[in-house]
Amino acid sequence: MNYKVKPYEIKHLDTAEEDSYYLLRLEDSGRQFKITEELKKVVPLLDGTRDISQIVKDLELKEKIKTNKKEIEDLIKDHLKPLGIFEGLNARKVDRMKMWFHINLIKGERLEFISKPFTFFFNKYILISLLSVFLAINTYLYFSKQLLFEGGSLDTKQIHFPLLVTMLIAMMLIHEFGHVVASFNFGLKPRFLGLGIYMFQPIIFTDTSDAWELKRGQRVVSDMAGIYFQLILGAVLSAWMLFFGVNLTLLIVSVINIAAIVLNLDPFLRSDGYWAVTDYIGINNAHEKTFSYVKNLMFRKILRKETNFQMPKLKPAARKFFIGYSFLYTFSIAFFTSLGVLYLFAVLKSSALNKNIDLMKSAYSQGNFADLGAAFTGLVIGQLVPLLFLGLIIIRIVKYMIKTIKKR
Fold it and tell me: Which positions ≥6 away from 268 have C-beta within 8 Å?
């Protein structure tokens, strides 16, 4: 059978691994795959005019690679066919977004007109100036007695809930707009802006998969662009409160904005901080590789059993970082899971669930919708979501342990 690869392009992939890797991108679907130097030499020969025997001959004559028909057949079967890169053959559908649910709202090219004028924000002098302004204003405000006093003395009835919800949605849009602007700044177009659900929360996201074509430094800037635009928003909110006085609604948005920035900097969840760290050190699929590395150590050191894990061929500095990151990643998962289990028992033992339900009933009967919203938020965020989340984590851990034991 003569295999023919769909229209594609191949670009060099900037990583910290010792071997060279490339990015194969299908022109029709935009799907991208990381391929080795060897595959880069084989793919052009799969043009539909050669059979396996001719490919073997051409590899030996043109590339000085000695192989045989069986090796090429296995390579096609095990590595290329599953990708769906051949005409007439489709790959198994894979959800690249790693979300529970998502829909695409706006195509990236439609955002170019409003994004291009803001690319000046990525001038290094403007960037440094804006970050300095943000730090200066917030340092003054959040550590001044005036803000602490005024913020603590304001009544919750002063919260303008429609404005609060609107600004929180705007905050998420501004974050994603930062990623969009960064893409256009580096000559790329984001694929789309979408809406999804991840970790029990609705999110707005931008598909910037084509950022893999950029150099590592540029990828880091693209990863952090959302946080950067949130910092700009934080500076505007703080400046407003500095000149016009503290407003409780704006203060809440400002605090949530800073909290969101901190959470997004988390290098262990699939957040902007995670992608920035892995792009900076040039390690692809860091979650899977770190987990496999730690699992391999446990089997070898504790169970005295060998696994098929192969350490990534990284440059010395990246290798050290990878090992340290693996242990920190494992410790963070164990630590926060333990805290979660303790919180789970604390919630079940306490009467917090009943108290929030009683507060909701009382607030509804009195027509106090501010207290009703606060009680409902406390019930959902404080009890129900953590319980459901921890329950799913425990189920996944048990299922994985059973699967591992059966394999052994």
Answer: 274, 328, 329, 332, 333
Whether residues 77 and 109 fall in one domain: no
pLDDT, mean of residues 72-100: 72
Residues 292 and 379 grouped into a single domain: yes
* pLDDT, mean of residues 32-37: 85
Q: Are 245 and 108 found together in one domain?
A: yes
Residue 185: CB atoms within 10 Å: 20
Contacts for 56 with CB less than 8 Å, ≥ 6 apart? 67, 68, 69, 72
Closest listed residue to residue 50, CA positions, set 69, 29, 67, 78: 69
- Tens digit of pLDDT for each residue in 298-329? 777 777 777 777 777 777 888 888 888 888 88
CB 33 within 8 A of CB 10: no
pTM, two decimal places: 0.74
Q: How far is CA 399 from CA 63, 197, 273, 394, 402, in A?
A: 46, 23, 29, 9, 5
80: Cα within 13 Å, side-chain hemisphere:
24
Please count the structural domains in the chain.
3
What are φ and ψ of residue 107, in 5° steps?
-70, 145
Same domain, 262 and 377: no
> In which domain, by residue range, is 34 found?
8-83
More confident residue, 153 or 372: 372
Would residue 92 count as lying in a domain?
no
- Residue 261 clears pLDDT 60, i.e. is over it: yes
Query: Are 108 and 233 in the same domain?
Result: yes
pLDDT, mean of residues 64-74:
86
User: Do the domain assignments include residue 159?
Assistant: yes
**3 in a structural domain:** no
Q: Are residues 114 and 199 in the same domain?
A: yes
User: pLDDT tier at 145 (50, 70, 90 boundaries)?
Assistant: very low
